[in-house]
Design goal:
- It is built from 7 helices and 15 strands.
- Helix 5 packs parallel to helix 6.
- The longest helix has 25 residues.
Length: 272
């Protein structure tokens, strides 16, 4: 038996408060940035674990038996705390998505929080602290930004349309990215969660991200879908369900956009 609409609303409210608390702290910490290299491709700042703890502590006040999958964990690839009891609920957390931007003093970053049940997102929140933009979605509810409904853009791929691309350009997809770059006003925001939030809002007509992880996308996928768009893997497969308990941090490449241009976007990235 699934969760009631009231239960989902409480989950969403908890996620919104946690995201805002973490985002406000991140804006305070950005004045005193100290970053170190986490691995070959990623940085981490002192603010990342601080903001993550703020999120988890707030959620645990309301849901002590829920599970957590989060990006930061000292000495480990990720933090994973399995849920206790039923239903099996996971919170998927990226405390600062766009850490490289944040580490360099760029304000284009976000807080991403999702709730997953049975391997699928049921609540998604992406907060952009610099603009005080709170993107929210939940099953049975429409996507919103600051309480107002948002929808994907029905615009075609053309020289005035904005399309989000990843900063990690895999050689196998060079031709696809080149085609997108020539056809659109391409953008790289440096935050996968924001790419998806802005696809949901209609600011980007689509996005292709090759090196996303579950905590980058879980909230944003729901935002796009509840705003009338599509999200899929590059192989045309559905992204969910995902076995969160078995997830080890592997990349989850994806395409997102409006259903009107779904075929064209997928066709571009299938030619490689």
């Amino acid at each position: 038996m699934g969760l009631s609409s009231t239960e989902i609303s409480y989950l969403l409210e908890t996620a919104v408060v946690a995201a805002r608390l973490a985002g406000q702290r991140a804006m305070e910490e950005i004045r005193f940035i100290h970053a170190v290299q986490k691995d070959a491709d990623e940085l981490v700042t002192e603010a990342d674990p601080i903001c993550q703890k703020i999120i988890i502590d707030h959620i645990k006040e309301n849901y002590p038996d829920h599970g957590f999958l989060a990006e930061e964990n000292a000495g480990e690839k990720m933090l994973k705390l399995a849920p206790r009891g039923e239903p099996s609920i996971w919170w998927i957390i990226d405390p600062i998505d766009g850490t490289n931007n944040f580490a360099n003093g760029l304000l284009c970053f976000s807080v991403s929080i999702a709730v997953m049940e049975a391997g699928k997102p049921i609540v998604g929140v992406v907060f952009e602290p610099a603009t005080d933009s709170m993107f929210t979605a939940a099953v049975g509810m429409e996507s919103q930004m600051n309480g107002s409904r948002i929808q994907v853009n029905r615009q075609e791929l053309n020289r005035f349309a904005c399309f989000g691309i990843d900063s990690h350009l895999e050689p196998a997809y060079a031709q696809a990215y080149q085609e997108v770059m020539l056809k659109t006003r391409f953008r790289c925001l440096g935050s996968t969660a924001l790419h998806l939030a802005y696809v949901a809002k209609g600011s980007l007509i689509g996005s292709a991200v090759l090196r996303s992880r579950l905590w980058d996308i879980a909230a944003g996928v729901l935002l796009v879908e509840r705003a009338g768009g599509f999200v899929s893997s590059l192989e045309r497969e559905s992204l969910f369900p995902v076995d969160v308990g078995a997830y080890q941090g592997q990349f989850i490449p994806l395409l997102a956009g409006n259903d009107y241009k779904k075929g064209e976007i997928k066709k571009i990235f299938s030619r490689r």
